[in-house]
Amino acid sequence: MSAEGSPPGRRARLGAVMREGEEQVTPLELFFDLVFVLALTQCTALMSQEGSWEGLLKGVLVLGMLWWSWVGYAWLTSVVNPEEGLVRIVMFGAMAAFLIAALCVPGAFGGDALAFAVAYAVVRVAHILLFLLASRDDPELRHSVVGLALSTAIGAGLLLVAAFASAGARPAIWGIALVLDVGGPLVIEPAGWRLVPRHFAERHGAIVIIALGESIVAIGVGAHEHVDWGIVAAAVLALVLAACLWWAYFDVAAIVAGRFLERAEPGREQNRIARDSYSYLHFPMIAGVALLAVGLKRTLADVPGDLGIVSSFALLGGAALFLLAQVAFRLRVMHTMAVRRLLTALALLAALALHAEISALALLAVATGLLVAMIVYEAIRYAEVCDRVRHRSLERA
Prior knowledge:
This protein is mainly alpha-helical. Helix content is about 75%, strand content about 0%.
């Protein structure tokens, strides 16, 4: 018994239990991610229902805010074990607030603006409080958390301001809030953060899987009419397209990037790589898949019809954005240029010129064909290298 009369183990469970090198993603983290699934679905619904450039912009802004919330908890749970102590209870509370924010997404720029802003603020405040709890014996981490609290307060505060502004001014205020909130870590000394690199990389890989799952959901949502041969063809093409994006990320890129992160010097170097390549550059991947889901939903809803420029951009531009983010991801982590992926992304954007000339199904076939060609070329050209990367165990120091 301690001097206070309470067993040390009990006091520890009331606080935060540090990970101390534990790499496995916990069930509670995966459970937390399920709320992000709903948030992502709501964002694609917002973009799809408006069917306009403004709708796409609003969806990306909301997704950006929700992504940054998720990123904060990814960093947090790389420091503390979310299933121990008070952290577990607060995580459930944060999930509830995240759920309310997700439910408010369709009206985030309208009647539910205030409800979204309040729920979002609760999610972020809970995150900061847990980080403060985790950093009580780590002055460097505490200093970084205080800096993050300032940018968090600015971002959440501006969303509250937007809730009382005119409807026309809200997207602009949201944009400013997102830039200032996300930009906070760029002016915070990165050496103060703590992370378990393999856990951190695996966590982001899981969220990419969740995003790709949204593109599969879009197939079912779009195909609400009688299933005919056109629907079957579009569904198969959409699945192949999603599989190509999965292949592009998980076949080699995610493995190599994870190893680079793990081998980086702990502290400033490792944290900067994690911040830039995962927290920042994974967002355009997620946004790209969300846009793609909008395009797929519209395609399955009217296979023989004309998608229109906005939905065509969502389809082709979403896939292109995913690849461009991967180009930047590889350049930041490995300092090499993924030329074929850059060229494929440019070809996808160039295919927009065909949107008024061919059907939605044909445009989907063009997009899928370009991605399949890229994957087949890489699989054949670099077969030996890819096999060696996938099957070589990580060399530990």
